[in-house]
């Protein structure tokens, strides 16, 4: 497998280029790009139909840079320089363990001061160029799709926090043994935690800018499914532990590739399994028994669901129905994948279930309720 981009390049071209990028992180970034594209397209379509309206905002132009602006630029410049210069001067360490370099208190003071000064100077000069003898207040129009840059940042931050919180709750025994490591680690992310917290952040931004929650939820359904599909590619290629239960059954079809039926995830980033003979480096384990490669199943299923949602979106004219259908598909897909996936189980009243099974069941039921609500209230939304 390909725990880092360097492993991938070596596999494709036979060259060894040390890069500090893990494969999972790259595909998480690509997932946000895919989601950004789908969200923007839907926002623009609904704007053109008149469903979503632009908002007016009053801003003041021509003011010089304030102390707060200069201070914030200096702060972020210092953090970037402090870490960036240290990473460049200790590149081999950065390549081998980027997470430790980024999350530790180690850094380069001179690099931090230099970029703090540069960021402050740049902000000051930009403000000076636009400064007016007398600042004035103007009204600007903000179109819904122009909010996407702000939304994606909020979704990334709160989605990551939610994914970490839900993952630590799911693996509570491991978390209490090393709570600091569990919170700061870049590995171990639960999709539903990211969906709930990141989605809530996007809804908050949308509501502040006059977009009703049901409209924003409908916009997000196809995009979230596409992003999920892309993100799961990273899970599979890096071997982050989201695989299935052992699969020793013979292939049902001879033409089916082995890696699509049962796979041992060599060089997995979870470092689970047995050592690989002759392997040198950080990721040198593979599973003792082949397992169902559930991440790649979810890549395929999620992309098919995205295509379905993308093709029916123009035919749906009731607020909330698109998101309700998304919830139903999402819940069904994840519930059945959980049947062959490795996960921690809870037991309540003698009933054993995983966190994802519980949440996916709630999502499916919520989707049914939302679709029913949309149909029941269709008379109220004739101009949707």
Could you provide a short overview of the structure?
The protein has 384 residues and is mainly alpha-helical. The protein has helices spanning 5-13, 23-48, 67-89, 91-96, 98-103, 109-130, 148-170, 172-177, 179-184, 191-208, 213-238, 258-261, 294-312, 321-338, 355-376, and strands at 55-61, 136-142, 274-275, 285-286, 345-348, 351-354. The protein has 2 domains: 5-54 and 144-381, no CATH class; 60-139, no CATH class.
What does this structure look like?
The protein is mainly alpha-helical and 384 residues long. It has two domains: 5-54 and 144-381, no CATH class; 60-139, no CATH class. It contains 15 helices and six strands. The strands form three sheets. The protein has a two-stranded antiparallel ribbon with strand order 1-2. It has a two-stranded antiparallel sheet with strand order 3-4. A two-stranded antiparallel ribbon has the order 5-6. β5 (345-348) and β6 form a beta hairpin. α3 (67-89) packs antiparallel against α6 and α14 packs antiparallel against α15 (355-376). The longest helix is centred in the N-terminal third of the chain and has 26 residues, at 23-48. The model has no long low-confidence stretch (mean pLDDT 88).
């Amino acid at each position: 497998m390909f725990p880092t981009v360097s492993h991938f390049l070596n596999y494709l071209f036979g060259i060894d280029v040390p890069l500090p990028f893990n494969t999972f992180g790259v595909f998480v970034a690509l997932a946000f790009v895919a989601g950004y594209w789908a969200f923007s397209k839907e926002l623009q379509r609904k704007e053109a139909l008149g469903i979503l309206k632009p908002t007016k905002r009053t801003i003041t132009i021509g003011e010089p840079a304030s102390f707060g602006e200069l201070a914030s630029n200096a702060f972020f410049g210092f953090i970037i320089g402090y870490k960036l210069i240290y990473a460049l001067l200790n590149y081999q360490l950065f390549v081998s363990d980027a997470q430790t370099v980024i999350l530790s208190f180690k850094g380069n003071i001179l690099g931090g001061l230099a970029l703090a000064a540069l960021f402050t100077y740049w902000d000051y000069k930009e403000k000076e160029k636009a400064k007016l003898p007398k600042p004035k207040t103007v009204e600007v129009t903000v179109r819904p799709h122009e909010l996407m840059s702000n939304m994606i940042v909020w979704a990334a931050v709160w989605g990551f926090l939610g994914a970490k919180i839900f993952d630590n709750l799911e693996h509570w025994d491991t978390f209490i043994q090393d709570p600091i490591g569990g919170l700061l680690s870049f590995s171990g992310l639960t999709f539903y935690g990211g969906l709930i917290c990141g989605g809530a952040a996007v809804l908050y931004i949308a509501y502040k800018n006059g977009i009703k929650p049901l409209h924003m939820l409908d916009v997000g359904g196809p995009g979230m499914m596409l992003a999920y599909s892309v993100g799961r590619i990273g899970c599979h290629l890096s071997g982050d532990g989201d695989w299935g239960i052992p699969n020793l059954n013979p292939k049902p079809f001879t033409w089916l590739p082995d890696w699509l039926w049962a796979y041992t995830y060599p060089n997995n980033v979870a470092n689970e399994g047995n050592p690989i003979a002759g392997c040198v480096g950080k990721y040198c384990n593979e599973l003792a028994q082949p397992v169902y490669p559930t991440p790649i199943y979810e890549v395929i299923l999620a992309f098919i669901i995205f295509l379905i949602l993308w093709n029916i979106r123009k035919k749906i004219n009731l607020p909330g129905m698109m998101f309700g259908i998304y919830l139903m598909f999402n819940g069904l897909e994840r519930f059945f994948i959980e049947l062959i996936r490795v996960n921690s189980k809870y037991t309540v009243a003698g009933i054993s279930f995983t966190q994802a099974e519980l949440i996916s069941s709630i999502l499916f039921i919520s989707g049914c309720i939302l679709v029913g609500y949309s149909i029941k209230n269709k008379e109220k939304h004739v101009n949707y």
